Amino acid sequence: MVTSQPVPHLILRNESGNRYLSLAGSNCWTVGRGDDNNFVLPDRWISRNHAMLQRMETGEFYLIDLGSRNGSFVNGRRVSVPVTLQNGDRLTFGQTELEFYCPPIEHMTDASMGGVPDSEEFTATATLHVRRLISVLVVDIRDFTVMTRQLDEKVLSEVIGTWFRCAGDIIREYGSWVDKYIGDAIMAVWIHGAQGVSHDEMIRIAHALSALHKMTSQLHERYPLPFPLRVGAGLNTGYAMVGNTGTGDRPDYTALGDTVNAAFRLESSTKQIGMDVALGETTYKYLAASGANPKLFNQYTVSMKGYDSPTLTYAGSFADLNTFLQITGKV
Question: Is there a contact between 302 and 269 (Cβ–Cβ < 8 Å)?
Fold first, then answer.
């Protein structure tokens, strides 16, 4: 006798019975009143794009509020930053309550996680996980902890949710997707061709970073913030293992490897050297190939956590980045 494996899902209980919302076949699901969401909830207290659930490669699920007007709640507590969900958690959006169900990660099969049956596992691994040249962008909100102590939780939730949503829109506009939402940071990945990174591709990434900075700096005009928000960024280019865990017309990639880790470390290094943006050496070479003045980004040697030897980086301010884009004629 074959027993079916439990699949992560949400349960919506209403007068007509229980509605089952499967969390399989993707890594990201949106919830809201608008028809463009994965889960459409006709509740007038719910925002058009209210919240998002994201599954990490570890199997953990995160709930991310997208700056909804009335907030997202887990077990009655309003969430202001991405939170890890536990089996049995109660999720509340507006006046709608759902139950989150996820079996222990060690008991979940590929099929229950939205993958493929065991008989196809070897083929899927061979075709869906490949070594690719990528650029990884990590953007972090500066002084976020300070802000959390000075803002009402409701306002904080709206601010960080709006930032996540707008950042996602910008990243998509410039040809990528947000791979991870991490507290007060995002990670985005651009996948390049085997021939390398074209000039236009690298300029597009630089333009995305400039747009993220501009969007962040204007948030204090919409919300009563104690100070204008700033971001720092690390941008790194290199090879990594890339896996497509999506289906059909909704590919869902994630990247693993030293190129990804170094992007996070580069972002952290901007605080050491007092700069806004830190570029990996390969990233800088591709940008410099445009013919723009390379002296716009100064060279630094930084010590990065987990690395035995100092690392070379090129760093500058957002003003330097915008000057670079102006020189290349792309602003």
Answer: yes
